[in-house]
Amino acid sequence: xxxxxxxxxxxxxxTDKQIPKDVMDxxxxxxxxxxxxxxxxVYSIVVxxxxxxxxxxxPTHFNQPMVKNAPAILTFCAxxxxxxxxxxxRNAEPGYDNFLSFLTAAIDAIIAAQNACIEAQANGLGxxxxxxAIYNADKIIDIxxxxxxxxPVTAVTIGYPAETPELTDRLPIEAVxxxxxxxxxxxxxxxxxxxxxxxxxxxxxxxxxxxxxxLAQVFTDVRYPLANNEHFSEVLFGVLKKQGFLK
Length: 247
Fold this sequence. Notes:
The structure is a single chain. The protein is of the alpha+beta class. The chain has a domain of 165 residues: NADH Oxidase. It is 49% helix and 12% strand. Helix 2 packs across helix 6. It is globular.
């Protein structure tokens, strides 16, 4: 299992081979064994294998080809709908119509998603996270008939790999791990930590293709610009209100 974690690759091309039911059940059972807040399990997983529904979902994920190509898409949702109904049916009034509750459920859903991904890889499948799920949560809610109290927070494509891409680069451990207290970074620290990433030929190509001076500009100006961040933030706040997490 540790090898599956260390050898993780994002797979964007899949074979036509379907996922056997026992394998999918194993993946889903691994997901529901994940750690969660108060053992409430305030998340849900929508498994999509129908080609028509995948076609509907594709635009919400920026028409990335693997959405239609993958045998299955798992949409992980923050879900207080089920828990709220249980509370009310047991004469207990839930107080989960607030941002903290959404954040709690979203964290639980993400942890469950990672369990599912590790189990999928252990069974010889490939996965790719789709961060676009939260960008277009409003549209996915309609497509998947998600009731009030349920919001998609991430989606994962799963299938048998038709490619073996190189391992994605990662920052060195000292970039993300702090001991005892947070040790802030000096200018020299930042230069050293990002030196290897900036020296990669594929990243140099990204800079040239996007007509930028630095790799950082590719992120701030092209991949995750302020205008997009503000737009999708506004969409998400609207979804939170509609789904009952913000008043």
